[in-house]
């Protein structure tokens, strides 16, 4: 598999500085809505539509840069609908031949009754890109949030996860192919894998800082074999999740999100990240002890986030089943190529 291209170091530093500066100004992590100073700052810097086509007002960057932006936000504890707006909602509009202006957006796929649950950031969006299935085809339209019935909800870390109800009768929409809807599902799943991995890496860094700076019985915690085992398991699981996610991301980009093994790779990334979260969260809180459970310590920002995100855009069981189905249906001798290509 090809090596993942590196993101320009100056761009990555700028992204990190923007979020870190906002965190310092607010003295902690926060949920950011479309009316915040940070939202406007990101728009001015061209980071809100980072992957959008230049001719449509975007910055023309790619998913590697977008992944770096997502990770920078996670590291600073900033909750903001970057992926939902740029990588999912605005991308789908452009792919369907529709224009996307500067309004804050999210996206949802509603059922036959016009209802979608656990929609990220709907209650804070200006517009919602709605996808539905009718007459054996999918349709998409861009709707002002006030035209929908939105019942607010939240996930484990307080991010909006809302119920959206639309009155579909009389809606025309723009027809889109099932392939785009499939890409939306896989891109959504991969977004959460990227965010989970960023949280796991941050947890690992906190563990390392803690065991090297704290002493017990006259020596650093890092000198105790039991603590070493806990931290090494955190590092191993985080690395496995990161490797699986980077493999899926590279396959998606190089295959233009339609490769024959892409679904398996995204599912493997989600499965690895989800199961890694269980061990990483448990071990990290064992390493930190009581201090890791306090509101003042940053550990909970990442452990609760990883636990919340691993079950969004498909549960762990759902993605585990996709992995198992792909393995079972691989042709004779095909399983090895499935996991190595």
TrEMBL record:
Belongs to the acyl-CoA dehydrogenase family. GO terms for molecular function: acyl-CoA dehydrogenase activity; flavin adenine dinucleotide binding. This is Acyl-CoA dehydrogenase. Gene3D superfamilies: Acyl-CoA dehydrogenase/oxidase, N-terminal domain, Butyryl-CoA Dehydrogenase, subunit A, domain 3. Keywords: FAD, Flavoprotein, Oxidoreductase. Its cofactor is FAD. InterPro entries: AcylCo_DH-like_C (IPR036250), AcylCo_DH/oxidase_C (IPR009075), AcylCoA_DH/ox_N_sf (IPR037069), AcylCoA_DH/oxidase_NM_dom_sf (IPR009100). Residues 192-315 form the Acyl-CoA dehydrogenase/oxidase C-terminal domain.
